[in-house]
Amino acid sequence: MRGLKGTRSAPSSSDLPLPMALTQLLLFAFATVVAAAPRSVPAGWSLHRRADPEALIPLKFSLAQSNVDKLEAFLLDIADPQSPKYGQHWSPVRVKETFRPSSETVNTVHAWLTHEGVQADKIQLSPNGDILHLDVTIADAERLLQADYYEYSDEDGSMHVGCHDGYTLPEHVSMHVDFVWPTVHFDAPRSLSRRSASTSPPLWGRDGAGKTPIDNLAAIAAADCDTSVTLDCLRALYNFDFTPVSGDVNTVGVVEFGKNIYRAEELDLFFGTYRPDQVGNIPTLISVEGGDPDAGGSEDEASLDIELMMGLLGPKQNLSLYQVAQQNSSMDPTDRLLAALDGSYCSIAPATDEGITDCGNKPRTNVISISYHLNPDLNDPAISPVVQRQCTEFGKQSLTGITFVASSGDGGVAYGASQACLVNGTLTFGGAKGTFVGQLPASCPFVTAVGATSVPPGGTTDQVEESTTDFPSGGGFSNNFPRPSWQDSAVQNYLDNFAPDYNATIFNRTGRAYPDVATNGYPIVVAEKGRFLHTSGTSASAPIFAVLIAAVNDARIAAGKSPVGFINPALYSDAFAHTFNDVIVGSNPACQTDGFPAAPGWDPVSGMGTPNFEKLRDAFLALPGMLSTSLHALSGQAAKRFAAAAG
């Protein structure tokens, strides 16, 4: 990921602008660079007309942050099992100050804008110091960025203003700017946010491969776990016998985007059969941007996540629901979630900011589960700066002690269930033969990606699972993020001994490899719309693994230790090798290839394998980390009890 060299001083609003004499030295005799130049209108959108030159738009310059090149080292300092500082998580204030863009960065961009005729009092620096915001006319935006702005529409009639053909910045400015928006990055069309809502392939959506109704629930009560996966099956598969002891001091959350909602009656239908002590309970709502789980929408994803997580956790462990509204703006839902957690992407005062009202004002949970794919992992100038910035934000939040868990996808080595592969530089849906395409956030190295497994036909929970054959579990190698040091040994072993001999252009052998682990993804029993169903997908796998990590945190908190936070370096370490069941059967075909085969050790289908909870818990309990370092993740009475337990 892109970073600035060295540590630079953090600016304040009083740092602006540079003296005019120095400004003049900076502004002349420079080359321009193309910041992004996609050649076609993004999928799901159609060009409507040229934008009104007199219309105002909120133009935002996301500034290059300080010390991003040190982010992995900072994380290893608190997440490597061999580090004496393991578990000593950072405060949110320390994170903000460490990565705040330098005065040089802020002043350079500000000076260029004023030289181009923007009034200084119209340029506002965000509270985090990472965005310069100005309201300008379309005509001024086109002049500043040498771009052509258009209005675009989707199938639902939602409108977006942008410049899909790209924009340019002076070279001396470009080095200080990650990206400018609204420009080339388009939010997912409303009609495409749910996979079933359109025949067109979605740009983002839930990870869930399919479902079939259960005609006779009684008949599956004692069925083998190869044909119907219940909560008892999951407990047996992962040696998971859990009764919380840390109460509401421990926290765990699940994210639902847009109109993916649950119904309390569906939860009770499920709990009535499989977890009677949860009947009448619902998750605690954390509404982001007005997200409303009582609104109309699709019940499949949220029902699956919440039934599995609450069912496995039990009534003594609360589940928080981050319900993130899908709005008609230039921001994708990941940005809104991250903004709510730490104020990133919030360009000016929250009360007036375009498209964002929740800026660092939402509680953080120790574990956050995400069962959605939100962007293809392409080395594309229209996408890469955006997803790299998002991944950086996941890493920064991981420093504070949050574990982010995400589904690895249901498209094998292609992007999403719509099987998108890269053909002659174009993202092509429908399983065309081409280059492998990963998905985000799973391929971000600061997220723990979870693949899907299933019990072999005729098998039992005493056997090691295999990679699911109901759908190709997502996995492969990132096109945006280099392989982190903590997975070098495991991944290189796979590449040297088991990887297919594909052409060098088919996948990026030096990229971050995923998934990291796997849990069951087929055939999961859920309740939805008044009936029981078999469903499948890594969409189930992620929340299952998130529950196990929440239970690990419960045990560590009870022992006076901090939550585990960023877990990937530990999972790949020798100290955790015995905590996994090695999955060696299966593959993840797509893009008219066989994908990757499962193999001994880490592989791009099942990661390190499926977890044995008791061994995983004990391995994390053996690591240090003071309890008091994660007080920022709590609030109110929970924080007081947390502090008391820490002594």
UniProtKB/TrEMBL annotation:
Alphabetized GO MF terms: metal ion binding; serine-type endopeptidase activity; tripeptidyl-peptidase activity
Gene3D superfamilies: Peptidase S8/S53 domain (3.40.50.200)
InterPro entries in the cross-refs: Peptidase_S8/S53_dom_sf, S53_propep, Sedolisin_dom, Tripeptidyl-peptidase_I
Cofactor: binding comment: Binds 1 Ca(2+) ion per subunit.
Pfam families, A to Z: Pro-kuma_activ
UniProt keyword annotation of Calcium present: yes
Region (Disordered): 457-479
SMART domains attached to this UniProt entry: Pro-kuma_activ
Location relative to the cell: Secreted, Extracellular space
Cofactors named for this entry: Ca(2+)
Protein name per UniProt: Subtilisin-like protein
